[in-house]
Each structure stands twice: as structure tokens, then as C-alpha cells.
Input
Amino acid sequence: MVWLVAFANLLPSYLLLSFLVVAYEKSSRYVEAAIVTGVAVVVLALVVILPGSRPFRLGQEWTNCRQVDHATALEETYRWTRAAGVRGMWCRFGAYCCCRLSV
Output
């Protein structure tokens, strides 16, 4: 569910950027650009969120009021959040490099 929210938040901005590139290139391939952008944003959201990872599951169990050690769950969610920020920066840097190479 969290990655779906991330996907929904990221998609409009990435679509806008890809449509600006298509318009700048005076092309008419908006549908293809939207499909490629949608796939890329799904991958980006999954890589950044990592919905099946141990810290993510532990945080979900904690929020669902299951019996978990609160200190461990807090530490794991903190670690997951910090790692998600780093993964997000690297994904954006990789996307920037790919865009620069494709021009």
C-alpha cells in the first residue's frame, strides 16, 4: 500500500517531465512516453520502498498492534527510512545519468 501511494505521488511529476521532453523534441509519441514513464515509476517506487523487506514488515506488524518489541520495531523503521532516502537519491541520480546519455 505504501509503494502505491509513492507511485501515485511520483507519477504526475515524472509524466510532466517526460511530456516536456516529447514536446521539446517535437514528437507525437506521448503514449509511448507515458507507458515507459509508468513502468519506470513502478520500478522506482518498488526499489525505494522495498515492500517485502524485514524492516518494512516489522513496522507494519507494529502498526497493526501485533506483539513486537517496540524498540526493535522503532529502530528498524528508522533504518528503513534512512535507507529509503539513500535508495531514492541513487535512483534519481541513475535516471538523471540515463537522461543525459540519451540526449
Notes: The chain has four helices and no strands. The helical segments are 2-24, 30-49, 54-63, 70-102. The longest helix spans residues 70-102. The CA atoms of residues 27 and 48 lie 31 Å apart.
